[in-house]
Known about the structure:
Layout: E1 2-5, E2 8-9, E3 19-24, E4 27-28, E5 39-44, E6 47-48, E7 54-55, E8 58-63, E9 66-67, E10 75-76, E11 79-88, E12 98-107, E13 118-128, E14 137-147, E15 156-161, E16 164-166, E17 175-180, E18 183-185, E19 194-199, E20 202-204, E21 213-222, E22 233-238, E23 241-246, E24 250-255, E25 257-262, E26 273-277
Parallel strand pairs: 1-3, 2-4, 3-5, 4-6, 5-8, 6-9, 7-10, 8-11, 9-11, 11-12, 12-13, 13-14, 14-15, 14-16, 15-17, 16-18, 17-19, 18-20, 19-21, 20-21, 21-22, 22-24, 23-25, 24-26
Amino acid sequence: xxxxxxxxxxxxxxxxxxxxxxxxxxxxxxxxxxxxxxxxxxxxxxxxxxxxxxxxxxxxxxxxxxxxxxxxxxxxxxxxxxxxxxxxxxxxxxxxxxxxxxxxxxxxxxxxxxxxxxxxxxxxxxxxxxxxxxxxxxxxxxxxxxxxxxxxxxxxxxxxxxxxxxxxxxxxxxxxxxxxxxxxxxxxxxxxxxxxxxxxxxxxxxxxxxxxxxxxxxxxxxxxxxxxxxxxxxxxxxxxxxxxxxxxxxxxxxxxxxxxxxxxxxxxxxxxxxxxxxxx
Length: 280
């Protein structure tokens, strides 16, 4: 493979349609789309300072790289890309990509990032920004830290482990989500979703878990969580006190105790709801 080392590359489409390159210690500056339509590229210790660096690309490996703020909308329509030990400052990154792997990556401004992508792996990733991973599918995540609202809206087939998510309106309009051993804080968790499972999680959510079809909680804790489960079908196993529950559509709720239980017979079928508490 040809090597490019310690270069300053400027101008539009600086390496248009490049292939079979190892690019090291190089700065891409002042020019749009430097690697558009590229393939089989390794980027090491390199920097992108301008817009649209990798569009319509294939088989890309990035390690110890930086995408600065003006590298916005940087990676779209790109397949089979691995990003490691990298800082991404630019928003609106990763759209309509397939086969994306992140490891030890920090997104300092992930607004509208990772949209409509498929087959995504995240490991040791820190994200700050709203609407992360909207309408993306087949996601596997381990040890992510997400700070930003509306995370994973419209997502499908998502598995998350060992993570911290501070995200209002997370997991809306989703299908097939499983979260293990994680902490989640944010209002209105999971509305209008199907098949949501939480295992060994701690969650804080005002009016969370509403309008969900098939919500399962196994060995979880709910902290400062009120008006939960409205119009949802549930199988809930909570190991502590629930502050309040309102009008679940059906299923069973097991908890240490429930502070306020609101079940209105004119709104839900009371016979389809089972409540089990230790402190009766």
